Amino acid sequence: MLLRYTFQRLLMLIPVSIAISIVIFMIVHLLPGDPIDNLLRIGSSEEDRAALVALYGLDRNLFIQYITWIGNMFQGDFGQAIVLRRPVADLIGQNLPYSLVLGGLAFAFSTIVGMTLGTISAVVRNPILERFVRGFILLGSTVPGFWLALLLILFFAVNLRWFPVSGAGGWQSLVLPVLTIGFGGVALVARITRVALMDARREDFVTLLHAKGLSAKTILFSHLMPHALLPVVTILALRIGWILGGAVTVEFVFGRPGLGSLLIRALGQRDYPVVQGCLLMLALAVMIGTLIGDVAQAAMDPRVREAKS
Amino acid sequence: MTPTTAPRSAFATMAMRSYEAFARMSIGRAFSSWIGRLSGGFIILLVLTAVFAPWIAPFDFAAQNLMNANQPPAWPHLLGTDEFGRDVLSRVIYGARTSLSVSATAIGISITAGMILGAAAGYFGGLFERVVMTVVDLTWSFPDILIALIFVAIIGPGLTSTTFAIAIAYLAQFTRLTRAQIVRLKRETFIEATINLGAKPRHVLLRHLMPNAIAPVIVVGMLAIGDGIVLEATLGFFGLGAQPPTPSWGGMMSSGTAQLFLSPWVIIFPGVVVAVTVIAVNLFGDELIRALDIRDRLRGA
Amino acid sequence: MLQVRDLGVAFGPIQPLSGVSFSIERGETLGIVGESGSGKSLTAMSVMGLLPLQGGRITDGSIAFDGMELTTLPENAYRKLRGGRIGLITQNPMTSLDPLKKIGIQVDAVAILHLNMTAKQARSRTVEILGTLRIPEPALICDRYPHQMSGGMKQRIVIAMALAADPDVLIADEPTTALDVTVQAQIIRLLDDLVKERDLALVLITHDMSVVAQTCDKVVVMYAGRAIEHGPVEAIFDAPQHPYTQALIGCIPRGLDGDTKLEGIPGTVPTVQNYPDGCPFHPRCTRAQDICSTTDPAFVVHEQSAAACHFAGAA
């Protein structure tokens, strides 16, 4: 049952992936000028040109070029970076782990802290706490990420010297970036958890749970939380992209290696093979994240499994 | 005596009807709470500042004065100077122009395109609706920054790509919202009656469905402008937005990073303005939703 | 077994329930009858001690259960009673079960909690109970989810949950209102059988007088948060004393031919904020006099029943 659902979701991803890859592929061709020039270093020789043309089939029509490009990718060839003159695949391979670590930690942080905060604010009925949580949620959703990052750097790294300003050495350098991304993430998760718990509490079946003699704690953790998790997972799956986006910005601000800073630098340098490679990876991450979110939701809610199959 | 009324164009009618519907909903109520007054007031103040920038800004935003570089806030440079000796306050004021105009334009485009798409999808239904909604949902699951970056990759840095990036990023919201409204209203009996009386789709759409769908769109649009401001600032921060010498909040923070330790005010103030603006927009948006009582209509998005 | 005396319940400044009294012994079925809004469910919640869930509290009276006074019982002691010695069946089976958990787990939980059984023991007990409730293939059902069952089945599962710990008292709050008519009859018969087989005390809350007539031994008629008549079922139906009871019985469709008009009671039940002074029924009563709007009627005993009416006995 669950397997079938997962398989269906995977199938639906295929047309989406194709569409996105086409868009990314077209970047080079939509730019003004000769696509070949966009892929080459300035001042390249004729041989280099010819080699590139052969490699990408740039003298054939668009469709063949696209297939060639995809084909190359499946063999692990993402092209050659213009500026650094290294295979894009290498660059991505180098930077990807950093992004994964940052993204994963930020995700875990947002989820755990967010759910805790949301649960506390739903269960403990303290008006001051409610105000504080609501204010926090508002701030978290509106403060621009990079500005928060800069503030944190200013305060913690420069003034207090607790954490390094930038770079990727050791766990200390992860604290501020994770906090920055997490700020928005925590706010989002907390808000959803809070509302979900308060809604779940009002459901009819809760009365019967009490009537069975179950303790409030059991009811909260064994019955209400799973219900609250549903919308959290849904939203998180949708917002995976958002967390990724935050990671992109944060990597850049903190000078951390990763797909994000790689992408932005490449954009500034007009290093299109790198741009394409990074965008593809990021898009892939978004889609996988959404898939995982969908599957997780189906795993938790038996009604979803039936509805979609 | 036969009164002569010139036949009104469908658009004019729609515009009038929309305005009436909107005004009837007492927007004024959004100002009844102190939150509404504070946030709404700030927004109005900001817009006025942007419009009257040349008269308000104490200095020319591009005037460099290297001997005065990196001055902390003091008279006459109330917010200090940057590394070129330019007055931060004036740059922030002019930056408001850039940010607001870019966001407003972008969201305007987004609303128009979104409403047309959403209305068509909702009204005609079927395969067309499914295709449109799938594409739209795709853009929704992608972070706005990523979409923006793709656009910049294609068009190159600058205000044009920023505008389009913001427009595309939030298109999904308006499409879904409009479609939800249209689908809901389509089922109303008075629409059925109108159609049975022989009204053409264009007439039904413009005179009846759209005016009712406008209120939630306007509110969401406002909130999207807030997001758009952040997106514009972020792109500017990456150096991919407004190019010098056009001042933008993001750009100021970008170049200010190098001077982070020397003159942090160059970064702090534009950031504060962005944050406060977005907070004000969100708070006022909430008040509007409450005043217009359309919270349930927003669930469609 | 269970004796309620002069129960009063308040939600903030509003007093939806006052002066409710009844008692029930094992093997008896007590019917609590009244229109929607008469306070029947509140009475059930009060006995279960679940008023705080809805924001209410008991202001006066006593609830005595097997010698224990429930109104002053501390929460952890109360929790042992709930589900253990007093079972509750709620109104809407479609939303009474947790949609995310399998049926078996939900019923097992009662036995595990109150009878200190292991999971395996609880499961065999669950299967056994589901069988007695005439649920087909109980072992398979345990692995299903609530949304896969019909309303009637779900209600039986709710009953199973209430029975699992072998309670002394069963409170059924409008158990059949949300079900089809055919299923209604089955469930009522089921409850009837249970009372006889297990020597239970059943408190059956309903708005359907015909159900009361068929199954109950004793009746309490409620109106606007008050018990306005009570007594053995034969006495109440043969000679109802209170005008409201008379009107309710008159509402039962009987031997309809083309000419019989269906009777209703003119007016509507007053809302909690607008309880009338004096006798709560007087605005709709055909026999109301001046005294009815000023003085609260006391119970007038007539043979085996008692009614709170100034003119009781003057049928």
Give structural notes.
- The complex is a heterotrimer of chains A (309), B (301) and C (315).
- In chain A, 81% of the residues lie in helices and 0% in strands.
- Chain A has helices at 2-30, 35-39, 46-56, 62-74, 88-123, 127-142, 145-159, 172-201, 204-211, 216-254, 259-269, 272-300, 302-308.
- Chain B is built from eleven helices and no strands.
- Chain B has helices spanning 10-24, 34-51, 53-56, 88-124, 126-141, 144-155, 159-186, 189-196, 201-237, 249-257, 265-292.
- The model of chain B is unreliable at 1-5 (pLDDT under 50).
- Chain B is mainly α.
- In chain B, helix 5 (126-141) packs across helix 7 (159-186), helix 6 packs across helix 7 and helix 10 packs antiparallel against helix 11.
- Chain C is α/β, with parallel strands linked by helices and 315 residues long.
- In chain C, strand 9 and strand 10 form a beta hairpin.
- The longest helix of chain C is centred in the middle third of the chain and has 18 residues, at 181-198.
- Chain C is globular, with a radius of gyration of 20 Å.
- Chains in contact: A-B, A-C.
- The interface between A and B is large, with 45 and 37 residues.
Q: In sequence order, what are the helices and strands of chain A, one letter per element?
A: HHHHHHHHHHHHH
Helix % of chain B is over 70%
DSSP summary, beta strand count of chain A: 0
Structural class category of chain B: mainly alpha
Radius of gyration of chain B: 22 Å
- What does the overall shape of chain A look like? flat
Shape of chain B: elongated
Biggest sheet details of chain B: none
**Would you report the number of β strands of chain B?**
0
Q: What would you call the quaternary organization? A: heterotrimer
> What string gives the helices and strands of chain B in order?
HHHHHHHHHHH
The chain-level mean pLDDT of chain B equals 77
- Backbone CA Rg of chain A: 24 Å
Number of helical elements of chain B:
11
Compute the separation of the termini of chain B in Å.
Answer: 50 Å
pLDDT < 50 runs, ≥5 residues of chain A:
none
How much beta of chain B, percentage-wise?
A: under 5%
Bin the helical content of chain A.
over 70%
Please give the most extensive interface between any two protein chains, plus how many residues each contributes.
A-B, 45 and 37 residues
